Amino acid sequence: MGSPITPGHSLSWKWLSLQDPQRPDTGSRGYLRVSMAVLRAGEPVLEQEEPEGDKDVEANLLQPPPCAATLQLRIYRAEDLPLAEPALQCLPSVGGKRSFVAAAVRAGFAGRTLCTRVMPPGPSPVWNEVFFFPLRLPPICDEIQLAILSGPRSSKVLGTATLHLSHISSAGAELEEGTPGFLPCFGPCFLPFYGPRADAARTSSTDTNVAYRGRVLLELSTHMGTPDGHQRGTINPEDIIRVQSHLPRHRFGLCGVFYSATMVPAGPELLRFELSLGNHGDTGDVTCKPAASVTPHGCPVFDGNHYHYLPWYGDKPVAAVTSAWEDAAHRWDALNLLRAVCQRLEKNVVELRRAPGDPEGDIGRRLLRELAQDCRRVLPLLEAQPTPTPLDTHIRAARLHLLRRMAAAVAMPPRAGWATLLPMAEAWLRSMGALAVEPQAAVPDVLLWMLRGERRVACARIPAPDIMFSRSGPGACGRFCGRLRTLFLMGSGDIRAQLRLRLWLGPVADSGDLPRLIEGSLRIYAETYENQTKLLGKWGPRGLPGSPCFSDGAGRAELPRHRIRPPRGWRWDGPWSVEPQRRLLLDTETNMGEVLEEVYENESRGPGGDWGPATVASTDASGEEVPPKEEVLCPQGWHVTDGWRVDVMGAVDEAGWEYGASVAPSSPPAAWHPTEKTYHTHRRRRWLRTRRRDPGAQEPEQDMATFLQLHRTESAAGSEAWEYGSLWSSRFHLQPRAGDVCRRRCWHRHMVPEQPPPVAPLFLLEGSPGTEDTAGEEEPTAEKRRTWGLFQPAPKQPLPLILCTFQRPNFFQLRCYIFQALELSPRGTKSTADPVAHVSFVYVSQSTRVLLRTLDPLWDQTLLFHRVLLYGDPRGVQDDPPAVVVEVFDQDGGGAGDFLGRSVCTPDVWLDVGRRRPPRLQRHPLRGSGGPAGELLAAFELLQDTEDGALAQVSSPPWRQGVFSVPMGVRPLLRPVALEVLAWGLRGLRGSVRAPSLEVQCGGRVLRTPPIADPASNPNFPINAFLLVLTLPLEEELMPPVRLRVLDVRDFGYRPEVGQSCVRGLGQHRGPPPGPRHGSAAPRGRINWVSPWIHGTPGHRGCCPGSSARRRLRTRWAQGWGHPVPVPVPVPTSPRFPQAEEEGEGEEEDDWWSKFYAAMGDKAKSRRGTSRDSLKIYSCELEAVPEFEGLQDFCRSFPLFPPGAPAAGGEDPQPVAEFKGLFHVYPLPEDPAEPPPPRRFQDLPPSQPQRCLVRVYVVRAFDLPPRDRNGLCDPYVRVSLGAETLGQRDQYVPNTLEPVFGRLFELMGTIPLEKDLRVSLLDYDLLPPDQEIGTTTIDLENRLLSRFRAHCGLPALYCTAGPGCWRDQLPPSQTLEHFARTQGLPAPEFNAEGTAVTFGDHRFLLSHFESGPPQHQHPGVPRERLALHVLRACHLVPEHLETRTLYSSTQPGLEQGKVQMWVDVFPINLGPPGPPVDITPHKPQRYELRCVVWNTRDVEPGDTNLLGQHMSDIYITGWLAGLEEQRQSTDVHYRSLDGAGAFNWRFVFPFEYLAAEQRCVLPARKHFWSLDETVQKVPPKLILQVWDNDKFSADDFLGVLELDLTRLPRPALHPRTCSLPGTPRRRWPWPWGGPRTPPCVSLFRQRQARGWWPCVASSGGERRLSGKLELSLELLTAKEAEERPAGRARQEPNMYPTLPPPVRPDWSFLWVQAPLRTLRHGLWRQHRGCISLSLALLLLFALLLTFVYAAPGYLAMKLVNPFQGLHISGDSGIGKHHAAGAEHHMGAAHKP
User: What 3-state class would DSSP assign to 1392?
Assistant: First the structure.
């Protein structure tokens, strides 16, 4: 994807582009932000926080990656293709020779397959084609599959190869801070192909693609851009010319020195080994020049014990092959340098892992120092590396970047401490390993074949870079270049041979030092065999049937001595000499200590005649003539143990005769019969004699050396060198016998180079046969050459024989300390084995003793291999020691036995015995034919036996019971231990098992229990406790396992095995010995076991559990609805400090659901205080709680599996039963006089079955997988115990994945007969059968027997009545006494008041746990309360709720959800239990919400009138959340200019409410065809919206008010105090701040509320106040609503309260009806201030104008008559008259 993927298979906070699927060309239609996760059932979702600064849509848009890249695969040509099979020849050939194939190349990538055209037959077909493959980045497919086809596209596949994109590209993720990645690229380079070969198909090898089948020149490149649709094309000529510059050839030489070959197949057929590189050296290929690539024929020799080997001894065969390849030294050097760095770093990382933490930092400093040295050494070589191809450039850059970064990192110690070095080093190692690959090797792998006759029976592949020599130095050479290495040749799916050889590959020009590296002296011979036949008693060369006079070793090719010439540049060194091939003449008696000789006495008769000696009186088993038994002499060094005797065993008569009839008198019968008939003509009987080697005779090694004449001078006389045989195809022998008709002898002639060559001489032998001109030979004619064709050379010359001769061997002694094998897997249906270990080393082997009937054999045996011959430098043996192969066989029944497992081990080599340190036993894994087959505890050391006799100073291992045992310095420290076995019983037995018994094997000891008389009525053993005294190692990792076998007792003593098990890790059952007993009291250790759990000191209140717990603040995790929720641990606190309850609907007593919600941490739902009862919720099964030890403290369940091998197909075997028991291992005193410790398993409970009442409480389930098409399911519960099943189909919970059941099931069962309680959840379907969702199984027996008292949880409080009533059978005091009695503790002692108790040597007071009188209802007496506190202090199982995982049988191992439940088990013999707990889910109650909308204020206007005034036509809609269909609306308040509105409107909302969860329950059918209602639970929320009514357009939204009825904000009393939550309010002037009221109330508690609430509107992500609503809310129950009815709106009955019509202003009507009134309200209401101010200013202006108008006249009058106002008394009338006139004048002046 285009966006990074967050952890957890999820995408978080990503934008998706929405598009129209019908019109994709229209572009994006919007964006959607999502978080997605792919999860399985029960997996929690990892919540991801919203990243900051992530608002940019385009930058965070999730887009699929474009297909913008194209892979271009260029296929140029091929070479070295195989020849066609004779039956599949494409073209006819001359002389019956094979021809080439018509080849094609097929390529496949990401589901697309393309094929080239088929080219005509030829050695190097040329295609020059290019393929185009579309590529998505990053690529999903990693492999490009390539194949060479023979003929058409559907023909046979010759070979295959694979290109991995991860090797030829990089995304840059593995390099931090690094170089950017690079796109896929490859070559131009040859790619080798491998496939099956015809002559090796009969081997049935597991690796069918083992043979080299040619190579193809390829080039791969990646180009960005969408492909144009073309799939193929033709390569440009320029590219073809460019590629040729990358293909220069250089001569390479491959040399192999074979030091030893063992574990080879037996038989008369001769063996040889072939070394090839590509087709060079392959004897089956005729296209390349023959080479000395094959070792001489060798006859397998029995090593005297178990294996066969080839007796090469001092003359080691050498194979040499020369070939021409591209020189890729720069790639091989870099690869080997990086591998050397990885190998050294990995070694240090392993040591760092073994030393946890490395506190001193010694290993860390060495790691950093060596890594810094490696980086400094490798970096200059990589910087100078040429890069001829783009892939070389990219890989070199990545390697340089990584090494430089590592060099900078190791320059200083880690800052965070040495503990952080390990993850850093592991990261470096992973990065180095990712870059230590070379896909462009070009040179094929080296193949090593073992040939048995002409058949290829085994093969090994060696990568060429591993043995490649480099002139850059030893660090750049392959890790096995020139070094001795042990190889295993595989064939038929198993090891067919073990070779120890030295391989070298490199340029011939650099092979000058190869002879010195080989250590021995190289001798090169020519070889031919002289053949003669016996005719008429005389030997001569005439009359040879099918064999020439001189031939090769196989007797086929004609090789006369006078025609053999040395190769060009070579000369003969001496004359021809006879060399007896004694390695081919070793018989079956070699290395044997005892031989059984046999001679058959033959008689014959004519018809009706008597028996008489036959013509051939003495024969062998095949009928060949042998000397009579009287003439058979005992060889020198042997002695006869008994005389000749007649074999009367088998199908013979009493005298040992067997009879037969033949057609010809001289021919033996075809079949023999034990009863004589009249028509029988022949009879024979078998005479046997045993002879053994003399004790004083030569050792097998000396005898072999004498026979082979290892230290002889030159060849013996010709008369001693003949080899005789009855047929040319039979095995030859040295001494002539009667019936020999052919003989031969071998001639050798040594050759040397004419001039000392600058390179290794063995690489100059190529082409010696058939390439040199030989003098005196007849040249073949041209016609004859054409007849031979291309594939056969003209003259046949023998291949040279190369030997590496060592003059003197080195003697070593191998010590194999075979201590024990663990957990062997028997073969077939067997449950046990008789194991024996065969140890093979080089050419010798030994075997341990056979131990009977065990899978954990304790051999305790040392195998000594004296004077083992190893050739070469001893320091090379120390550097590369030979491998020690240990094979374990089941020797039951004799013969070779059944193979069980094999381990390849490396011995510790000590050249200086004086500095030897004894080895340590180690665990060596054993691998069988089907995988891991156990482990071997053994140690191996190889000591050099020098001439100074230093080896004699090493003490011999002790001799015990006829064998050498493991010495004290090597064997683990052993001490006597006691293994106590609690064998409680067997469960789940199947079939007709009558009387099973148990057999326990450990440490070579066997314990057998008495049988169970009647498993159907009582599956427990009659005796349960047993003791085994063993001698076991002190080291826990060396402790043997415990084998359990259940045997059934049948009639006539037949005891078939029912099941078996292996208990590993016995150290986990180790413990101290039980404490001493005093009198009749319980063990002291039991009291010490309980007392640490009880906190506090007697009489000290400060240390009591209550006070200490109150001082500590502890939190735990409880599982809440599938998610961890931190909840406080309920601690018994003092009742004097009760916590105040939250506001909510209270109840008198808390039920169980209140405890459940309190434990979940949901205080709102719990409605409880912390001083009340508590419940513990476990997020897992009760068995998975660590502190309860899996409830297997009394006994554990061990599954028993069927005897024999595991199930086929790699599947785990199904258990057939289970064993209930326990083990306890503790040391015993070493002093025999000291008394043993007391037994642990005492005072056991009765083992008789108990009748029990089982109460199953199923609370709820969650994370269930959907089963229906709607993505939900309809689950119901089914509980089964034995034959009883409860649970009805009709009691299902519809359409949910988180059902709440609240069901109680009561069942009766007999434990342990019915111990497994199955709780299943099924999905209800209309038509049965119902699908199983999941099942969980509970072992009730473990809960009943556990000392943690898991059968009934302990509550926190003791109550005698109410929901938390005590439900156990016994009161707490009796429960405490019963607990003490069952656990072996002294009984508790209470005082008379019951406020104090003495228990476990401690005295506890009730005041330690309670600080005052109990505050909860129905408390019990102090005695019972105190007993309960003490019980809970013992850390027993509390009252709990466990979460169990459901699994389905159809999908094993996958979680199918979880169920929360608990189980109570009550034995009937203890009395009746208390009342059950009522966990019935709460039912929802019917309520009615009445909401009266009175007035609105300050509502934002939504319209503008004609006068430009803002106004609104207000109406209000309302509904309850989830009940949108009950939406109600008020009438419209028109023309509200100030946002005020009057409604007096009533909303009525009926709903169902679940008080326990504070949710409204909304059942509804999703579809009309749905059968059941889907229940939806939503918070009780009232939603009121304010709208503006519009006539001709959509209404405008003005604001919303959402009121949570459980957390209702307190309303404001006045509109001016109504504001948004969080707005700062006006503080009161007085100090105490005014009234403090809770911010929220619950309407379910207060029932009524009236006031003003704010409406909210959002714009731009900000909330603002958009209005205020005056409401009155009233909540009534269904009964109250029926008693006080009220209609909606103002409808009848209009009561409670009565709503009058609203009083609205007149101008709220239309302006047409009252225009003046509208103007008055519209103008005056809004502009009255401006109007008043304008009128005042107008009046003031009028007064000013009047003054201006009247002022001139007044002034003029004053000027005319200034004393007009001054009159005498007599003139008063005149004054009045003038004043009146003036007033009249002024008034006239103001008139308009």
Answer: coil
- Token duo for residue 94: 């001359």
Buried b (16+ CB within 10 A) or exposed e, 1584-1598: bbbbbbeeeeeebeb
Convert 387-413 into a string of H (helix), E (strand) and C (coil): CCCHHHHHHHHHHHHHHHHHHHHCCCC
| CA–CA gap between residue 1638 and residue 1647 (Å, rounded) | 16
Tokens read off for 999? 């057999």
Q: Is the dihedral of CA 1473, 1474, 1479, 1484 positive or negative?
A: positive
203 in Cβ contact with 217 (< 8 Å): no
Helix (H, G, I), strand (E, B) or coil at 514: helix
Q: How far apart are CA 761 and CA 754, in angstroms?
A: 11
* pLDDT tens for each residue of 786-835: 333 333 344 467 788 899 988 888 899 999 999 999 888 887 777 788 99
Structure tokens at 1739: 């009046």
Given the DSSP bridges, would you call strands 1440-1448 and 1176-1178 parallel, antiparallel or unpaired?
A: parallel
Burial of 859 per CB tally in 10 Å (0-12, 13-18, 19+) = buried
Question: Are the beta carbons of 537 and 526 closer than 8 angstroms?
Answer: no
Contact status, residue 1129 vs residue 1158, Cβ threshold 8 Å: no
Tell me how far apart the alpha carbons of residues 577 and 558 are, in angstroms, rounded to a whole number: 19
CB-based contacts of 566: which residues, under 8 Å, 6+ apart? Answer: 526, 572, 751, 768, 772
**0.90 surpassed by pTM:** no
Per residue in 443-466, pLDDT (tens digit) is 999 999 999 888 889 999 999 999
- Pairing mode of beta strands 249-262, 315-326: antiparallel
Distance, in Å, from the CA atom of 898 to the CA atom of 268, rounded to the nearest integer, reads 24
Retrieve residue 1535's tokens: 């023309």
Read off φ and ψ for residue 1432, nearest 5 degrees. -70, -25
Residue 1299: name the closest of 1272, 1260, 1259 by CA: 1260
Which residues sit opposite 1061 in a β-bridge? 1044
Beta bridge partners of 803: 317, 523
pLDDT tens, position by position, 353-409: 877 766 777 888 888 999 999 999 999 999 998 889 999 999 999 999 999 989 988
Burial of 1053 (0-12, 13-18, 19+ CB in 10 A): exposed
The continuous run of DSSP H or E covering 1760 comes out as helix 1725-1760
* C-alpha–C-alpha distance, residues 949 and 928, integer Å: 41
Listing DSSP states for 696-722 in one string gives TS--HHHHHHHHHTTT--S---GGG--
CB atoms within 10 A of CB 1423: 21
